[in-house]
Design goal:
Length: 203
């Protein structure tokens, strides 16, 4: 694949994922006044926690799951194109024959992460709609999602640092992600102040 196309696709995925993450950050902050990531022991555990939320909080949670499906798509492709970009770099005297198979494994891990995260969101939404729905390996699914995603992202960043010493690019990418997230979350918050997501959200 052309190096220019890979870089362009990588930047599009990076920007889009950052924007969506900003929207989800606002939704979760608005729900309880803080951003909290939870691993549920079972579908019933999630259902019990969800039932304790008021109507507005439930709507915010459901909206988060739906936006998260888009984040998974662009975030997963971000991992894939990051791996492809590293493969397309000028390796010069660096041992590409050693690192290339590892990059391939990390690329596949990015795709596996997408499948696991989509499956998790499916379970969340299914549990809300269907009181009889259950999935015995739900906790393992969640832990596998986090493990696969973190290994893929961490591995790619590590190779970028160790092989190409691109620490400045990585720091700028982290700074840009946080900046876009804060700007989007703040903008959505201002919009929501004038046009609340639901009547129950009015303060």
């Amino acid at each position: 694949m052309n190096a220019f196309i890979i870089k362009l696709a990588l930047r599009i995925c990076y920007f889009t994922a950052s924007v969506i993450w900003g929207i989800m950050t606002f939704l979760q902050y608005e729900k309880k006044g803080s951003v909290k990531m939870t691993v549920y022991n079972s579908i019933q555990h999630f259902r019990d926690e969800f039932s304790l939320l008021n109507e507005c909080q439930q709507r915010l949670d459901i909206a988060t799951f739906r936006y998260d499906n888009f984040f998974i798509f662009f975030g997963g492709l971000l991992l894939v194109f990051y791996a492809l970009k590293l493969k397309s770099e000028d390796w010069k005297d660096k041992p590409k024959s050693f690192w290339s198979p590892i990059l391939t494994v990390l690329l596949v891990a990015g795709l596996v992460y997408m499948a696991l995260d989509w499956s998790e969101n499916y379970c969340f939404l299914k549990a809300v709609k269907d009181p009889g729905f259950d999935f015995l390996s739900f906790k393992a699914l969640q832990l596998s999602k986090w493990a696969t995603g973190l290994v893929a992202l961490g591995g790619l960043i590590l190779i970028d640092l160790v092989v190409f010493i691109n620490w400045r690019r990585i720091l700028w990418a982290i700074f840009g992600f946080l900046l876009i997230t804060l700007l989007v979350a703040g903008s959505v918050g201002l919009y929501n102040h004038s046009y609340p997501i639901c009547s129950a959200c009015k303060k």
